[in-house]
Amino acid sequence: MKLSARNALKGKVLEITKGQVVAKVKVDVGGQSITSLVSVDAIEDLDLKVGDEVSAIVKSTEVMIAK
């Protein structure tokens, strides 16, 4: 699969919390965690499970940095 996004972070699924429509997926990326909201249908289509190796793909028009 080819994507226009260039920020693909490899990691492992730590936690999946399913709601009725949306699921929260927590991914460990090099000791840091990223949380993504995806549809429950997408979780089922991907057969996503805790422990799976995944890529967290970030596509954004704005990046903020605070110090």
How would you describe the overall organization of this protein?
- The chain has 67 residues and is mainly β.
- The chain has a domain at 10-49: RNA polymerase II/Efflux pump adaptor protein, barrel-sandwich hybrid domain (OB fold (Dihydrolipoamide Acetyltransferase, E2P)), CATH 2.40.50.
- The protein contains one helix and four strands.
- It has one helix at 40-46; strands at residues 7-18, 22-29, 32-39, 53-58.
- Strands 3-2-1-4 form a four-stranded antiparallel sheet.
- Strand 1 (7-18) and strand 2 (22-29) form a beta hairpin.
- The radius of gyration is 13 Å and the shape is globular.
- The mean pLDDT is 90.
Give the SSE map:
Elements: E1 7-18, E2 22-29, E3 32-39, H1 40-46, E4 53-58
Antiparallel strand pairs: 1-2, 1-4, 2-3
Instruction: Give the tally of β-strands.
Output: 4
Largest sheet: 4 strands, antiparallel
Strand content: over 45%
Outline:
globular
- Classify the secondary structure makeup into a structural class: mainly beta
Which strand order does the major sheet show? Answer: 3-2-1-4
The H-level CATH homologous superfamily of the domain at 10-49, spelled out, is RNA polymerase II/Efflux pump adaptor protein, barrel-sandwich hybrid domain
Mean pLDDT: 90
What is the radius of gyration? 13 Å
The helix fraction, in percent, is 10-25%
Just give the CATH class of the domain at 10-49: Mainly Beta
Encode the helix/strand succession as letters: EEEHE
By DSSP (H or I, 4+ residues per run), the number of helices equals 1
Give me the CATH architecture of the domain at 10-49, please: Beta Barrel
Task: State the end-to-end distance.
Answer: 36 Å
Query: At the third CATH level, what is the topology name of the domain at 10-49?
Result: OB fold (Dihydrolipoamide Acetyltransferase, E2P)
Low-confidence residue ranges: none
